[in-house]
Design brief:
This protein is of the alpha/beta class. Helix content is 44%, strand content 15%. The protein has 16 helices and 13 strands. A seven-stranded mixed β-sheet has the order 1-3-2-4-5-6-7, with helices on one face. Helix 12 crosses helix 15.
Length: 411
């Protein structure tokens, strides 16, 4: 049997003051026809990255409105996750393709996990490429199947995409962050555009006092009296922490007091992460004002919240980005935010209105210096960004979207 993820309760009523009564009422109306429907989410890991953060809130809220919702995690060894990490990078444009032998490893683990898929379900929702082969190996386990893509497929390696498409074409529906991610060769099924969302009441996003945020940051050597630039993300080449360090050095040349925090979690399905963590550490070259931290330094949700809340500038200088929930988190906290002009980040940041979009370390440094020099600009961007996040990227809206799709599928 696949591993079930233990989840605490959530109440939709608690979100009414943020989401609005109209949205909450719409959710309850949609859910009325789906009472006790058995819904299963399947993902590669229960820790690290946006998928797990979404599901820790979404699944309990599905239960709160009457669905019998569960979340299971597939099993795999390092050989499998090495292949799926390569697949992830390749689907986002890396030129390295998957070999026949690697594809056999991928298929073998999907077949093995499909055998361990127990129960009869009204809907199984498979998240990302790692478990994409489940439906092909166990089609009778659910009346309806949905594949949910969380990565940027706008410029994929075509040979890897050609291997993936036959697996996902058999799903009853596929779900994407943006229209430009939908592959031209995808046949059949409903295609729904559904940006992700954050939980505003989670420890990572709840309101922290300025005093509490400063206290937490001090525990990691951050001086709360000096300006702070921060990026929160996996240690991954696509997130470009090396470029963030380069931008920081340009900022520091004109603002010597500035500090940089690079904060990330090491995910269980990302063996490449440690290698890139160490290369980022080497690039920092011992600068005492660069703090490189991860969950093994006791950095959890509250600490990430504190770093973002304390920051004068939050960056997400991605080179590829499926959506960028860390951007949403920073906007929700009212922080001036600079993001790479890629993937789902422009959906959140309107350049010059809710933040800044950049395409190089030089541009990132220039925009950061503007923000540091103009507190009123920082406040204006922060207010507009928070409202953008509130209107479009909080979990109740995501729950409504899922319920609407389930209705379209006749679940």
């Amino acid at each position: 049997m696949l591993q079930e993820v233990a989840l605490g309760p959530r109440s939709l009523a608690d979100y009414t003051h943020l989401a609005g009564r109209g949205l909450v009422a719409r959710i309850r109306d949609l859910a009325e026809d789906m009472k006790d429907k058995r819904i299963l989410h399947v993902s590669a890991t229960a820790f690290g990255g946006g998928v797990s953060e979404i599901l820790y809130t979404l699944v309990p809220l599905m239960r709160d409105v009457g669905l019998d919702a569960h979340w299971h995690v597939i099993l795999g060894r390092e050989e499998f996750f090495n292949v799926t990490k390569l697949m992830h990078n390749s689907l986002q444009g890396d030129p390295q393709s998957i070999t026949d032998e690697q594809w056999e490893v991928f298929q073998a683990y999907n077949a093995m996990n499909a055998k361990d898929l127990e129960g009869e379900w009204d809907l199984i929702i498979v998240h990302d490429p790692q478990p994409a082969g489940l439906r092909m190996n166990a089609p009778d386990r659910a009346r309806r199947w949905v594949w949910r893509c969380h990565i940027d497929l706008s410029t994929p390696n075509e040979s890897t995409l050609a291997r993936l498409l036959p697996l996902i074409s058999g799903y009853d529906a596929t779900v994407w962050h943006l229209q430009q991610y939908v592959p031209a060769g995808l046949d059949g099924g409903i295609r729904k555009i559904m940006p992700p969302a954050i939980d505003p009441l989670s420890p990572k996003n709840m309101a922290l006092s300025a005093e509490d945020a400063a206290f937490v940051c001090e525990q990691f050597g951050i001086d709360p009296e000096r300006p702070l630039v921060c990026q929160v993300s996996r240690f991954d080449p696509w997130k470009d922490p090396i470029g963030v360090i380069d931008a920081y050095r340009r900022i520091k040349a004109e603002a010597p007091d500035v500090q940089l925090a690079l904060v990330g979690s090491m995910a269980t399905d990302d063996p490449e992460g440690w290698e890139f963590f160490h290369s980022t550490f080497r690039h920092a070259d011992g600068d005492p004002d660069i703090k490189i931290l991860n969950n093994l330094n006791n950095v959890g949700a509250i600490e990430v919240n504190a770093f973002q809340s304390q920051s004068d500038v939050v960056m997400q200088k991605s080179l590829r980005e499926g959506f960028g929930l860390t951007v949403t988190e920073a906007l929700w906290k009212g922080r001036a935010t600079i993001g790479g002009d890629v993937g789902g980040i422009p959906l959140q940041i309107t350049d010059g209105e809710t933040g800044f979009l950049v395409s190089s370390p030089e541009q990132a440094a220039e925009r950061a210096l503007e923000i540091l020099a103009d507190p009123e600009l920082a406040k204006r961007l922060g207010r507009a960004g928070k409202e953008r996040a509130r209107e479009h990227f909080l979990t109740p809206r995501l729950l409504r979207d899922w319920l609407e799709l389930m209705g379209d599928l006749g679940v």
